[in-house]
Amino acid sequence: MSRLSPVPPDLFGHPRGLTFLFTTEMWERFSYYGMRALLVLYMLKYLLLPEHAAGVAGLATFRSILEAVFGPLAPQPFASQIYGIYTGLVYLTPIAGGLLADRVLGQRRTVIIGASLMAVGHLLMAFEHLFLLALLILILGNGAFKPNISTQVGHLYASGDRRRDRAFSIFYVGINLGAFLAPLVCGTLGEGYGWHFGFTAAGVGMTIGLVTYLLAAPSLPPDAFVRREQTSAPMRRDQWLSILAILALMLPVSLYWATYEQQGNTLALWADQNTDRFFFGFEIPVTWFQSFNPFMIFAFTPLVVALWHRQGAREPSTVAKMAIGCTLNTVSYLLMAFAAWNAGSGQASWLWLLFYFVIITTGELYLSPVGLSLVSKVAPARLLSMMMGVWLSTSFLGGFLAGYLGTFWSSMTRPAFFLLMAAVSAIAAGAIALLIRPLREILRG
Questions:
Q1: pLDDT at 407
Q2: Given phi > 0 = left and psi -120 to 50 = alpha, else beta, which region is 14?
Q3: Inside any domain, residue 8
Q4: What share of the chain is helix, strand, coil (3-state, %, to 5)?
Q5: Is residue 226 part of a domain?
Q6: Would you say 124 and 133 are in contact if contact means Cβ atoms under 8 Å apart?
Q7: In whole angstroms, what is the distance from residue 372 CA to residue 165 CA?
């Protein structure tokens, strides 16, 4: 039963709507990660070449604006800045998307609008002269879609239902199933047959997600509008404290995402330029490495959830789990620093990337789905979609920082660059660890 009104009977121990939301999110992530797997490589190997860049509407103006702030940008730093701005803004617009759903349109209509915009944006990526317009449409579409699909997962469960954390872990598997398939399909098409085929495949995936969501209507919870009288009522002290707790965690989590997002940026360049990718005579495509993380997400999720269950009363608190996640993220970059130092001027084995993804993925499971569950539990009901958008904006700041940090790839040695990523992540881990005790009572878990 939803905390708002009854929903259809359960399926596999969870509300039936979870299956539809899982599938919709899977296809949306297929489209996002399919495009992300190609983005930096596409820019450096095709779009930013002089003979193509001149035909991209608005690109010269956009470059001049960035150079006015950061100074002259060679192709790799310019591509990194575009990557960071895009991956940042797709997580800023959810704040507006959450407000729009809470106050005006409701979650369902806002998700439909967002999915439709994203389908159009991915298809426009197939036309190189519309590159910047396509990115803008994708940014707006994601803002409408992302906070409201996550909020609807929370609305499937009554207050205090212990299945909620497990539901978000299951939902997170859906996210990463789509992310696993995307580089294999879109990446293979883009690298092997033409960039535009890969982008078109991403658009087709988003269209399938939209159709799935439209078919899900009978199984979804009703829209949770903010009532006028609820809006005018004063906020309680515990509600303000919950909001402050979420805000206190946002900066260190943003630093975490700044290093995590190097997977689609500088780690793709490491795989392309500094990695021996041969495996029994087969050369692993560069984009396939971006399937390692999502594959491990749904492989490791049952193990991590089982570990938490077995720990019982000793299970770490929500904030402690997030600190553990950042610590593991730090270890993954220390490993890459060692791999780069060990390789010297030669190429490193692709197995180093495999071990890197094992560690960073385990850390992600301790941070990302736990954060979504935290917001759905403690944010005031009147601001739930907006606060989900605010929380997702940690990836906005993280994306911007990822793009900026990525500009150092061309000017630092590889070991030094990875040590920089480890240092940023270690700062995040330390800051979250300091918050464990102060936030324990506020967050109750």
A1: 92
A2: beta
A3: no
A4: 80, 5, 15
A5: no
A6: yes
A7: 9
In this structure, what token pair is assigned to residue 301? 């999720």
3-state secondary structure of 348: strand
Q: Give which of 85, 93, 88 is closest to 113, Cα–Cα.
A: 93
Amino acid identity, position 287: T
State the Cα–Cα distance between residues 129 and 424, nearest whole angstrom.
Answer: 36
Regions of the chain where pLDDT drops below 70: 1-14, 158-162, 164-166, 225-233, 385, 444-445
Number of domains observed in the structure of the chain: 1
Q: Is the pTM value of this prediction over 0.70?
A: yes
Does 3 reside within a domain? Answer: no
Please report, for the domain that includes residue 324, its CATH number.
1.20.1250.20
Residue 289 to residue 121: CA distance in whole angstroms: 25
Phi, psi angles (nearest 5°) of residue 142: -65, -35
Q: Is residue 1 part of a domain?
A: no
**Residue 98 · residue 379 · CB < 8 Å:** no
353: domain range?
13-219+236-443
Number of helices followed by number of strands (H, E) in the chain? 19, 6
